[in-house]
Amino acid sequence: MYLVFFYLLVGTFFTVSQVSSAIITINFTTPAIFIFGDSTADVGTNSFLPKTKIRANFPYNGIDFPNSRPTGRFSNGFNSADYLSKLMGQKRSPQPYLFLLKAGLRKPMFRGVNFASGASGLLDVTGKHLNIVSMSEQIKQFKTVRGNLTLVKGKGATKNILATSVFAISVGSNDIFGYFENRSTVDPTIFIASLMTAYECHIESLYNLGARKFGIISVPPIGCCPSQRIFNVTGGCFEIENTFARAFHSSLDTLLKKLSCKLSGMKYSLGNSYEMTINVINFPQLFNFTYVDRACCGEGWLNAEKPCSPKANLCSSRNNYLFWDLFHPTQYASKLAAETLYNGGPQFVTPINFAQLAAY
Length: 360
Ligand SMILES: *[C@@H]1O[C@H](CO)[C@@H](O)[C@H](O)[C@H]1NC(C)=O
Ligand SMILES: *[C@@H]1O[C@H](CO)[C@@H](O)[C@H](O)[C@H]1NC(C)=O
Ligand SMILES: *[C@@H]1O[C@H](CO)[C@@H](O)[C@H](O)[C@H]1NC(C)=O
Ligand SMILES: *[C@@H]1O[C@H](CO)[C@@H](O)[C@H](O)[C@H]1NC(C)=O
Ligand SMILES: *[C@@H]1O[C@H](CO)[C@@H](O)[C@H](O)[C@H]1NC(C)=O
Hints:
Layout: E1 33-37, H1 80-87, H2 97-102, E2 112-114, H3 135-153, H4 155-164, E3 166-170, H5 173-181, H6 188-208, E4 213-217, H7 226-229, H8 239-262, E5 267-271, H9 273-282, E6 291-295, E7 297-298, E8 313-314, E9 321-323, H10 331-343, E10 349-350, H11 354-359
Parallel strand pairs: 1-2, 1-3, 3-4, 4-5, 6-9
Antiparallel strand pairs: 5-10, 7-8
Helix pairs in contact: 1-10, 3-4, 6-8
The structure holds 2-acetamido-2-deoxy-beta-D-glucopyranose (5 copies).
The site of one 2-acetamido-2-deoxy-beta-D-glucopyranose has 6 residues, from loops.
């Protein structure tokens, strides 16, 4: 068995449903979007990090992106950060901070910035040895952007822009992978509590920098990723990790209720990635999926014994696969996930969905 919990990140969220009679907003202005987290939302950050191996800027990644271009996204095309941005009125996700920095942090930052970095987690130790950008570091980068915005727009206008912007965060899976990878003996309850302490700290930092609207995406059933299924002789999910994912969601639900009460003017939307994804795994035909256990791009059993690479096996009907590679959803799955976060009902996103959050 190679790949001893090869870290990265995961995400796969999904949907059944729809709807909530969408709020009709005449006069809807596109909010700026600031995106934080791991590879589920990374749109190329790690390609700018010379020291990390956790990257996706090579084929077959990007094979379904315009011009079949590998962009650093861990996907055959776009990811959920792109589809969410699209639903909120933009063409795709804002550019990575490290890309904008190279270009001199000019205008494009007004529509938002993407700070997400593959293999990062809530804890600073998560992914540290992989030389990625931790959540704490991502927030420092945001602080720089805020400083630059203030120079251009002034204090008052910056405050208004940030208060109406959406802050999307997708993180937590890598911390749980790290726990298992390190065979930690910390009590699970204490471990989840430590993740919540870190989350609270990150949300408060962003709030203190002017963020008010938080779109939070919790941890999917990570034990069902192809990379983890190969630890189960039946190819079934690695259940103990799913237990952690469920505990993470319910603790996060409690934390956000508490924080929104404490931080005046804070609004949030919490996407239940666990429910969305398990629903797809249990009822694949409802979503036109044929394969929900194996990777589209990879090698070996379940195409999950080696990562996606130019010499891996590539599936042909990518829209019938839930998983693109060992850890990540396909473009089609990411689109379903984003649509559910945006328009979904209370079984998938609470207390309001992302459309309501954006419009508020
Ligand atoms: C649209 O929004 C702007 C700024 O919030 C407001 O001044 C204007 O009256 C609104 N227009 C309509 C038609 O609601
Ligand atoms: C943005 O802020 C950083 C840190 O304060 C500064 O070094 C940089 O020059 C600023 N860039 C622009 C375009 O204002
Ligand atoms: C796992 O252990 C390694 C080696 O001791 C350490 O560098 C890393 O920070 C640990 N990871 C986590 C998530 O605790
Ligand atoms: C392996 O998968 C089966 C379902 O196929 C499940 O019942 C079992 O609990 C799983 N084992 C582990 C160790 O997660
Ligand atoms: C469902 O999958 C088939 C291929 O198996 C494809 O031809 C069809 O367009 C898909 N339908 C939708 C709604 O995506």
